[in-house]
Specification:
Chain A: This is Ribonuclease P protein subunit. Chain A: Pfam families: RNase_P-MRP_p29. The complex is a heterodimer of chains A (about 300) and B (about 350). With about 300 residues, chain A is an alpha+beta fold. Chain A is built from 12 helices and 6 strands. Chain B is globular and about 55 Å long. The chains are: A alpha+beta (about 300), B alpha/beta (about 350). Chains A and B meet through helix 9, strand 6 and helix 12 of A and helix 10, helix 12, strand 8, strand 9 and strand 11 of B.
Chain lengths: ~300, ~350
């Protein structure tokens, strides 16, 4: 099909002069019947993908995985692989953190380092531990700025339309709670208030990934930040949304001072983990139902202890 | 922790006359002396008479009571809650009434007097909603149609000696109700009161209570465990509890109108042991602290959360806390200065 058809040439020749070169100029490119551009492109794309993705992205050499990547039909297997990778990553992070702890403790015993200097510890680790130091990332401070303050807080405030104290009076609580049940919690700062499991109590951190039955958090340590997996079962999490400063219309100094005290306030919500055990993608379309609450008895006990202490 | 979820709210004699609160004050102070911590004021109505003013009046009274008797308002020794019990005769009307008690009475109010009442949406609903079935038909209706999302408690008419002697309660209906998370109430005040034809009423009272205890016995609990497939994880833990304590779906409360009709933990145990045949001391005390707290939790979660999933504020049970103020239902915490 890629040849020029003879009848076209004859027709053109009949209506024009003698010189065939002139006639050939008249043939527009879009009149020629050639293989379409899309097919050509797709061929090159496939080649590129094969070159790029084959070994570098996956890091696994087998041919079956390559094909599945190209077709995008074998979604289950791909997803399974990503799960494996996540699990590997978490385990590696935990191992390296453990090793780093050991190294630092040795140095502290010798007297070269002190307990309080986080910066010096990291410097020391960079020198002594250079191969695996990268795996200690992500660091807590960087994530708190990047993920939490710059991305998640503006997102949730825009979703709920909370800005300052006066905006609260216009809002309806039940609508806000319903919106929060659908919201995305990757990147949020959660804190455990009440638990069945005492070893988990009081831990707070930035959520890296929300799984079906657990939150994977990055927690701030005294010397080294660690990744922790906290189960939703039997825990109550707290969300704290700091309010913006109210624009001051009042002129006297006393009133301004009073407002400054109020400006540090924040809105508090809490998630009951037992009723939250769904995947984050499933949660958007799901209808929540209240159940028999005999299993939430720890919620009451926790409150009693906190008030007495 | 001791709970009493049934202290009667005094009735008006006429529509114009004011309620006399002096008796109620005395009752609540004796309860604090007996080391009760959570107490609910009970407002009994027929479905035709559900009024909007009563809940506002109750909230006002609770606030004034805290101010009168406790110096530190943020940690009162006794915590007061509101409760409504609806006499149920015709099950077809009930859906509307329960809605009215839960939410709708607020909406009616907001149309009358603007945004000031609108701001107190969560404050203007009752903490606990209870139902008193008067027929067998209405009891059957509860076990089939209603959930723990609408109703927390079921009581029976123990007080009235002239009520028709009780219909025969079945294991099946009671276990069906308790599987949903709705608890059943036993009152001990009619045993102590001496109004009217006391001997007849006491005999009837003992008979009724014994029937209810029989229905919620060990066998019914076992049935629940086998039938419920949805909550498999919790059942394994519950099985251990049920083998020790038979009655997981009962609570005991006073139902008192006088300060003389209230008893301590030991006093309640002696009443239940001698007249109603509950000999296990731990079993009885569980009905006084653990189970009523679960009822409170269920009610408060309905009021303060979205389907028991996300809650406003830290603590569901406590109304007033240190450093937390309530703006339009949102809990706002002020940070401490460092």
């Amino acid at each position: 099909m890629d040849k020029i058809q003879p009848f076209v040439k004859d027709y053109l020749l009949s209506s024009s002069g003698k010189d065939p070169s002139v006639i050939e100029q008249r043939l527009y490119e879009n009149l020629k019947l050639l293989p379409t551009k899309k097919e050509k492109k797709s061929k090159t794309n496939r080649k590129n993908i094969r070159k790029k993705t084959g070994n570098k992205l996956l890091g696994l050499g087998s041919k079956k995985i390559k094909k599945s990547l190209l077709k995008q039909e074998n979604y289950k297997k791909l997803n399974h692989d990503s799960r494996k990778r996540l699990r590997q990553y978490i385990i590696e992070c935990k191992q390296t953190a453990r090793i780093a702890h050991g190294l630092i403790n040795k140095e502290i015993k010798r007297g070269n380092l002190t307990d309080n200097d986080k910066g010096e510890c990291h410097k020391y680790l960079k020198e002594a531990f250079s191969e695996n130091y990268i795996r200690l990332f992500p660091k807590y401070c960087a994530l708190k700025k990047g993920l939490y303050e710059n991305l998640w807080l503006p997102y949730i405030k825009e979703l709920l339309r909370i800005t300052d104290k006066r905006s609260l009076e216009k809002l309806n609580v039940n609508v806000c709670l319903q919106k929060l049940s659908i919201a995305d919690y990757n990147g949020s700062y959660l804190k455990v208030i009440k638990t069945k499991n005492r070893s988990v109590s009081g831990i707070g951190g930035i959520v890296l990934w929300e799984a079906q039955k657990s939150f994977i958090m990055l927690c701030e340590g005294k010397l080294i930040d660690e990744i922790k997996i906290i189960p939703k079962d039997g825990t109550v999490f707290e969300i704290c949304l700091p309010l913006d400063k109210t624009p001051s219309n009042k002129h006297t100094e006393q009133e301004r001072n009073e407002e400054d005290v109020d400006d540090n306030s924040s809105v508090v919500f809490s998630i009951i983990g037992d009723r939250f055990k769904y995947r984050s993608s499933d949660r958007s379309g799901r209808k929540f139902k209240s159940k028999r609450c005999d299993d939430l008895f720890y919620y009451l006990l926790g409150s009693e202890n906190s008030t007495s202490s | 922790m001791l709970c009493d979820l049934n202290v009667l709210w005094p009735k008006k004699e006429n529509s114009s006359s004011k309620i006399d609160f002096s008796e109620l004050d005395k009752l609540l102070m004796t309860l604090t002396e007996l080391k009760y911590t959570h107490v609910a004021l009970n407002y009994v109505v027929t479905p035709e008479n559900v009024s909007d003013d009563e809940i506002i009046q109750m909230n006002d009274y609770i606030n004034s009571f805290y101010h009168k008797y406790f110096k530190d308002i943020t940690i009162p020794k006794i915590k007061l809650y509101t409760r409504i019990t609806i006499m149920m005769e015709d099950p077809s009307k009930m859906q509307n009434v329960i809605k009215k008690a839960g939410t709708a009475c607020v909406n009616n109010k907001s149309t009358h007097s603007g945004p000031s009442t609108k701001s107190n949406i969560t404050n203007n609903t009752f903490d606990i909603i209870a139902i008193m079935p008067l027929n067998e038909k209405s009891l059957h209706n509860i076990s089939t149609n209603l959930d723990c999302s609408t109703v927390d408690l079921i009581t029976f008419d123990y007080n009235n000696p002239y009520a028709p002697s009780y219909y025969f309660l079945k294991h099946k209906t009671i276990s069906g109700i308790s599987a949903k998370g709705i608890k059943i109430e036993i009152i001990y005040a009619p045993m102590l009161s001496s109004t009217g034809n006391s001997t007849v009423s006491r005999v009837k009272y003992i008979n009724n209570v014994k029937q209810i205890i029989r229905c919620s016995g060990r066998n019914s609990c076992k049935n629940i465990n086998h039938n419920n497939t949805s909550t498999n994880n919790t059942n394994d833990k519950n099985k251990k509890n049920t083998s020790n304590n038979k009655k997981n779906n009962l609570i005991i409360s006073s139902g008192a109108a006088n300060s003389l009709q209230v008893r301590n933990k030991l006093g309640v145990y002696s009443i239940m042991m001698q007249f109603n045949g509950m000999k296990n001391y731990k079993g009885v005390t569980k009905l006084l602290d653990d189970n009523p707290l679960l009822v409170l939790l269920n009610g408060r979660l309905r009021k303060k959360s979205y389907q028991q999933c996300i809650v406003t504020g830290d603590d569901v049970i406590a109304d007033t806390q240190i450093g937390i103020s309530d703006i339009n239902g949102f809990a706002v915490r002020q940070k401490e200065h460092e």
